[in-house]
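Table 4 source record.
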Amino acid sequence: MPTLRTIACHAFAIFFVVAGINHFVNPDFYLQIIPPYLPWHDAINAVSGAAEVLLGILVAIPRTRRIGGWGSIALLIAIFPANLYVYAHQELIPATPLLHLLRLPLQLVFILWVYWAAGLSESARSSASAG
């Protein structure tokens, strides 16, 4: 029977793969939230979507889970400016200001989710004790 951590890992993987595929199915949504000071919006959308798919797959596979977890965290941090941009320009995605505000700490929830699910805290502790 799978553990709660394994289930959380696979749920995160599915979430990331579906979100990544959505970059290609519904690119207009993502293109509008890329801050205008960044160049090459189409490339950013495609690369971030492909990265989400790849990282989701890596998180799902036990052998590649660690690199997928760290990569997912890096990507979640890298895309955070888009969330700030949406909060500053709430007309882009119609919602209440409170929902836009709550979306900001949601990135931290995703980071903590993959950090725990991928067992990154355990791998950090085992590396520290090995040295």
